[in-house]
């Protein structure tokens, strides 16, 4: 079955995202089903969304699951053949979906498609060096991985792959960062294709998914999880020694900055201390347990 507005469901994982979610939803056709997974477990947020938008179903998670687990929860409630994962700070253009539908007909087999970010300085994909010659602004091109803020999954195709038959699409050990790289790498290892659709464009606000009032706590969380996720990803795919050596320069740099800011800037000291903690917790095999200290 081909992609259409009737065979597509959009999954959006939120956490204190009430200030950006409306712009995201309003950019999506009301013919498309939307599942919002809210990690802040906010009943008022759920009631407001479902009252305002007839095509939205909001699922409250029992705790802050993070991106990987939140996406899995949403995807396991999808009844259509295709699902488009979006961050709440993404805005679609008028033709974003129609271009994906049209251009997908040119591709013989795919597991993942992604629109192209409007910001050319920060491409939302990684590509092998030898495949760069195939990039143009007209036709879909194959890539190694795509960023998780906008990726369309061919669920029928993926569910036939042995590694994904349990429908645990994303590794739930990741709380945030690199769960999409891990997902794409596992698909590629199973000979599944990932494509960018250059005619389909989206705007990603970037780091705006959570309300600004929680910015500092979220920044602490990001610094902890970035280095934890990087260590875990490298250990999973390349071995412990590689993860250790790859992360060591960042860890040593963070220690230096903790000492430098110790007396002159408490907030920056805490940020770099979080990097140290994330690295050490990953080094000793601890889970990605840290959560932003926000009352929910």
Instruction: Tell me the strand percentage band.
Output: 15-25%
Structural class: alpha/beta
- Outline the biggest β-sheet: 9 strands, mixed
CATH top level class name of the largest domain:
Alpha Beta
Task: Classify the helix fraction into a percent range.
Answer: 25-40%
Q: Shape from CA axes?
A: globular
Radius of gyration: 19 Å
CATH topology term of the largest domain: Spore Coat Polysaccharide Biosynthesis Protein SpsA, Chain A
Distance between the termini: 41 Å
CATH superfamily of the largest domain: Spore Coat Polysaccharide Biosynthesis Protein SpsA, Chain A
Q: What keywords describe this structure?
A:
two-stranded antiparallel sheet; 18% strand; 9 helices; 9-stranded mixed sheet; 11 strands; alpha/beta; globular; 296 residues; Spore Coat Polysaccharide Biosynthesis Protein SpsA, Chain A
Description:
With 296 residues, the protein is α/β, with parallel strands linked by helices. It has 2 domains: 8-204, Spore Coat Polysaccharide Biosynthesis Protein SpsA, Chain A (Alpha-Beta Complex), CATH 3.90.550; 212-283. Helix content is 39%, strand content 18%. The chain is built from 9 helices and 11 strands. The chain has helices at residues 21-26, 43-52, 66-75, 96-104, 155-159, 179-189, 215-238, 240-261, 266-283, and strands at 8-14, 33-38, 56-60, 82-86, 90-92, 112-117, 125-126, 141-142, 145-146, 150-154, 194-204. Strands 1, 2, 3, 4, 5, 6, 8, 10 and 11 form a 9-stranded mixed beta sheet that branches. Strands 7-9 form a two-stranded antiparallel ribbon. β2, α2 (43-52) and β3 form a beta-alpha-beta unit. The radius of gyration is 19 Å and the shape is globular. It starts with 7 loop residues before the first strand and ends in a 13-residue tail after the last helix. The mean pLDDT is 92.
């Amino acid at each position: 079955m081909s992609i259409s507005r009737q065979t597509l469901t959009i999954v959006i994982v939120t956490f204190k995202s009430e200030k950006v979610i409306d712009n995201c939803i309003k950019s999506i056709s009301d013919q498309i089903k939307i599942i919002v997974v809210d990690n802040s477990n906010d009943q008022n947020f759920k009631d407001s969304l479902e009252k305002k938008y007839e095509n939205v179903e909001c699922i409250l998670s029992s705790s802050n699951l993070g991106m990987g687990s939140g996406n899995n929860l949403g995807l396991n409630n999808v009844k259509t053949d295709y699902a488009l994962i979006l961050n709440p700070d993404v805005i679609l253009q008028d033709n974003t979906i129609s271009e994906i539908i049209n251009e997908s007909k040119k591709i013989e087999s795919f597991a993942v498609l992604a629109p192209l970010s409007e910001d050319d300085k920060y491409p939302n994909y990684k590509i092998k060096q030898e495949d760069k010659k195939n990039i143009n602004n007209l036709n879909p091109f194959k890539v190694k991985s795509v960023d998780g803020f906008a990726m369309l999954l061919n669920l029928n195709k993926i569910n036939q792959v042995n590694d994904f038959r349990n429908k645990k699409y994303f590794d739930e050990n990741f709380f945030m960062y690199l769960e999409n790289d891990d997902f794409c790498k596992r698909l590629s290892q199973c000979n599944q294709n990932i494509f960018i659709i250059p005619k389909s464009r989206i705007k990603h606000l970037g780091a705006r998914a959570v309300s600004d009032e929680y910015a500092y706590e979220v920044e602490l969380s990001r610094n902890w999880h970035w280095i934890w996720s990087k260590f875990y990803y490298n250990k999973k795919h390349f071995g412990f020694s590689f993860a250790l050596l790859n992360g060591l320069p960042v860890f040593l740099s963070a220690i230096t900055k903790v000492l430098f800011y110790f007396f002159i800037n408490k907030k920056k000291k805490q940020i770099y201390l979080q990097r140290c903690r994330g690295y050490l917790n990953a080094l000793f095999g601890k889970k990605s347990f840290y959560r932003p200290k926000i009352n929910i």
